[in-house]
Amino acid sequence: MLLTITSAHQPASDLSYLLHKHPDKVHEIEISSGVAHIFYPEVSETKCTVCLLLDIDPVGLVRRNSGPRGNDFALEQYVNDRPYVASSFMSAAIVKAFSTAMSGRCKDKPELVNVPIPLEVELAAIPVRGGEAVVKELFEPLGYTIQMERHPVDPKFPEWGESRYFTLRLTNTVTVQHLLSHLYILIPVCDNDKHYWTGQQEMEKLLEKGKDWLPTHPARVFIALRYLKHQRSLANQAMAMLLKDEVTEDDEEGRTEPEQKIRVHDLRLQAVRDVLVKANAKTVVDLGCGEGKLLKLLLEEKQFEHLLGMDVSYRSLEIAKDKLRLDKLLPKQRQRIELIQGSLTYRDKRIEGFDAAALVEVIEHLDEPRLAALEKIIFKYAKPIDVVITTPNAEYNKRFGNLAAGQMRHSDHRFEWTRAEFQQWGDRLAELYNYSVVYKLVGEEDPEVGALTQMAVFTTKDTTIGAQRFLSYGKQ
After folding, report:
1. More confident residue, 423 or 319
2. Which among 143, 122, 128 is positioned nearest to 189, based on CA atoms?
3. How far, in Å, CA of 217 to CA of 206, rounded?
4. What is the per-residue pLDDT across 78-120, written as a single tens digit (0 to 9) for each?
5. Do 182 and 104 touch, CB atoms closer than 8 A?
6. 64 or 360, higher pLDDT
7. Domains and CATH numbers, the chain
8. What single-letter DSSP state applies at residue 346?
């Protein structure tokens, strides 16, 4: 099990100061199931490489386990890859070998701690459940350039196909402290397994080591779930802690949108409700439901038999639960509505099979690669009969006296489209996924720049979907 970190910083030998490991010595550190060796195969002014080599004792690994680790395979602890691949053992070794560097301390050269330097990492063998797409999902948002070499199950038998093991090379200009925290958390996330019990203490480690970058990572829910071994209660707690300072809808609107007789956000919600009522939808999923304001409106309409609200923020869902008074609803009403936590950029079968989907001021919060994933999840997999999407009209921004030219309405917006740009996007989706689309403006219209909000209403052309839903109602 081998990890190498190479620095091209000038002088490159500064890496040894940051890691608190003398380059002329071979260091040995005992870990729970073996020994970690730290040494420098190359040290010069132009290049410095440090190696972390784990020598895991397979017999000791078995003796320390009283039985299979939650696996039905009786010989799993005897026949496994743990001694040979980068896994949670590597994370444990990183934090023990480089604890001072991970805490952001450097006695001899403290001025280097917060300096991003060019670094290259190589993991000789890392298991990745989900393959190359997962690695890109995890590391690209952090600025890494990725090279991967996938290993076959057995080179002598190519017909057996490829394994889930890779040689992974990462390059980035980043502080050593951040690099180590990224590796510490994301190595076991790639593996999707851990060799020890995961509880409250692990959640605290996740928050501590990821505090500088995890709150803004687009895959933070995915990371938390895998890091905490899919214990959703712990992941929910972690998300609530990470997102506790998140700006709410009311903050966003009050900051940029003018006071009107009817609040702009209320107009949006009413417009979306009216579209869903007119579409005769009976089941609706509100994607990015936030604090449940649209759900509250829909719950008042007897037409809607089942409502599902999904949001990435556990905190927002807790607020929605309180505002909707779910614990006080009559049983018949309570059965009509459900709240779930989830990401809009991963396929989730819980959101499939609905008559309609609504995304109110959601898409502008996604980077373009994430938006492409969302498009496929909604229109290819979920395939509702109707999809209602609202987003800011960028042309209207010039009417805000407090916005500079080119400035967006909120710091978390990744883009804001003009009416032409929104229609170009919508037309492409409609053609690609066999939908028709119409566009509407929400709010008072300005003759020059349009309205503050723009809306697209997509309706499938696939008549078999509507027929299937109609038949399913008849069976109920």
Report:
1. 423
2. 128
3. 13
4. 556 665 667 778 888 888 888 888 888 888 888 888 889 999 9
5. no
6. 360
7. 2-196 (3.30.1610.20), 256-475 (3.40.50.150)
8. S
